[in-house]
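Key result, reporting period 2: structure in, sequence out.
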């Protein structure tokens, strides 16, 4: 297990496991804010002192996601902070649908903001050329492309090379002081852009809920694209020593991701052999592929022998939001199943909270 993501200490959202009655969305938002944005805007105390709002200051909130009160974003009132309507831009194959998502609108409202406009663009160049949006929503197939074009990246975006959210904010101009390089748009321009990976936190909260306070013996991750990279980082933050197995149709991509994540790359037809002679499959299996995203995507056979891996008592996490054939198969096999809906809600909540956080940091 030599990957760079396994070298640090475990950083679960809930160090003792999810407590009873937990507000999972509130917990993941706090963890994401504290890790991804709080360190980017040093205050007058010096460049090494993070400037934090009341939600990301651990002295005021306790460990992120652990025994915390509810997240009351609209209740915070900074003098002189006039919260504007939020302009959203999006790119990706499903961007037209995403900008009209009720989950996104609800997350923005829960952050005390209101959507002023929501538009989709053809590609990263069109998105970055438009001066009007404040929140950029980045979907497949552009997550890794945009990460390469935005030198100002949050820690998780930098680790994975994946950006799913772009913030246009003046606090991004300080990113170069924290090892993220020069800022797209110019360090002194109000339109500086910061790329963030929220998907890794959103995936992590689902995985920790499925694990129910136990460290999984093994997790099988199907796929090796941008979404898989985010899932793998979430796995490694929560459980650095769990046996993570990555399998993808593109074997070189699986090997590359396995190398950085301290995982094993296994060909699809070799997966069943990993569990031969055992009465159960992996503790958690994750589908990060687009198979099941639409009815049309299910026309071709699935590339992985999941029937040999889905066993009673296991858990299946499908990143796709719709009820797919894979989810139905996992339910019939006796697995606990999570679709991508909770992950999507958590992603949108983190995006909206990041915007609110940067507005407050700019006002300090």
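The corresponding designed sequence is given below.
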């Amino acid at each position: 297990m030599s990957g760079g993501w396994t070298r640090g200490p475990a950083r679960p959202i809930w160090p003792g496991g999810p407590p009873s009655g937990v507000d999972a969305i509130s917990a993941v938002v706090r963890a994401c804010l504290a890790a991804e944005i709080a360190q980017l805007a040093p205050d007058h105390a010096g460049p090494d002192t993070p400037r934090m709002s009341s939600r990301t200051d651990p002295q005021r909130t306790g460990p992120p996601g652990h025994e915390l009160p509810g997240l009351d974003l609209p209740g915070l009132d900074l003098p002189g902070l006039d919260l504007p309507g939020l302009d959203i831009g999006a790119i990706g194959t499903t961007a037209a649908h995403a900008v009209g998502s009720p989950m996104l609108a609800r997350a923005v409202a829960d952050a005390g903001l209101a959507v002023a406009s929501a538009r989709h663009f053809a590609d990263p160049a069109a998105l970055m050329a438009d001066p009007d949006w404040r929140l950029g929503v980045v979907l497949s197939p552009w997550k890794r492309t945009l990460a390469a074009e935005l030198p100002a990246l949050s820690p998780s975006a930098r680790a994975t090379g994946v950006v799913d959210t772009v913030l246009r904010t003046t606090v991004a101009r300080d990113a170069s002081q924290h090892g993220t390089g020069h800022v797209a748009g110019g360090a002194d321009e109000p339109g500086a852009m910061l790329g963030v990976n929220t998907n890794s936190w959103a995936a992590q909260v689902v995985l920790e809920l499925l694990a129910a306070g136990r460290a999984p013996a093994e997790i099988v991750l199907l796929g090796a694209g941008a979404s898989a990279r985010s899932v793998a980082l979430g796995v490694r933050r929560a459980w650095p020593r769990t046996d993570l197995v990555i399998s993808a149709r593109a074997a070189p991509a699986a090997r590359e991701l396995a190398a950085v994540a301290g995982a094993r790359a296994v060909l699809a037809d070799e997966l069943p052999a990993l569990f031969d002679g055992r009465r159960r499959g992996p503790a958690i299996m994750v589908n990060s592929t687009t198979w099941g995203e639409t009815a049309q995507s299910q026309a071709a056979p699935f590339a992985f022998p999941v029937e040999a891996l889905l066993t009673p008592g296991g858990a299946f996490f499908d990143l796709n939001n719709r009820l797919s054939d894979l989810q139905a198969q996992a339910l019939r096999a006796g697995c606990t199943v999570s679709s991508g809906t909770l992950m999507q809600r958590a992603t949108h909540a983190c995006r909206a909270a990041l915007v609110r956080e940067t507005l407050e940091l700019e006002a300090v």
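Confidence is low (pLDDT under 50) at residues 42-80, 174-188. The domain at 201-340 is CATH 3.40.50.720 (Rossmann fold). This case is discussed further under Risks and Mitigation.
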